[in-house]
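Notebook entry, structure prediction.
Reason for the run: the old model in the group folder had no record of what sequence produced it. Starting over properly, with the input documented here first.
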Amino acid sequence: MSMSDEPNCNQTYGLGTSTSLRVDSKAVAFCITLSSKTDVTIQANTNVRCERWKTSGMADPVLSLFASPMDDMPMSQVLASNDDGGQADEGKNCNAALLSWTLDEGTYLVIVSAFDSCSYGNFELNVQGKLSN
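New structure, fully documented this time:
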């Protein structure tokens, strides 16, 4: 990925965000800015059972968390990534992704991509957090 192709922080979401988005060949990128150490949970939910997923129009999202894009850390250094970790018992929320991480004060880049070209679609983004001890 060249520097001009790297995702950036044109979009910022705060803690408490819940919004519907779509991922296709272009990943969804956004930043979160924290004013203190925070336990953060980011979910890319499908809210559909696995037996209905293929015909639902929902994505198979993959979440990736990077340090601040303003830092000197290269984009190839992922702090955390998850595919399918948000799937609930009994196949609910099929292929959903979940990251739960304690983050220091700062700005972080989150990228939501599709697992592959057969898994483009809609998802519900939830960003939650609480101050860490």
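Summary: Residues 65 and 80 are 5 Å apart (CA to CA).
The old model has been moved to the deprecated folder.
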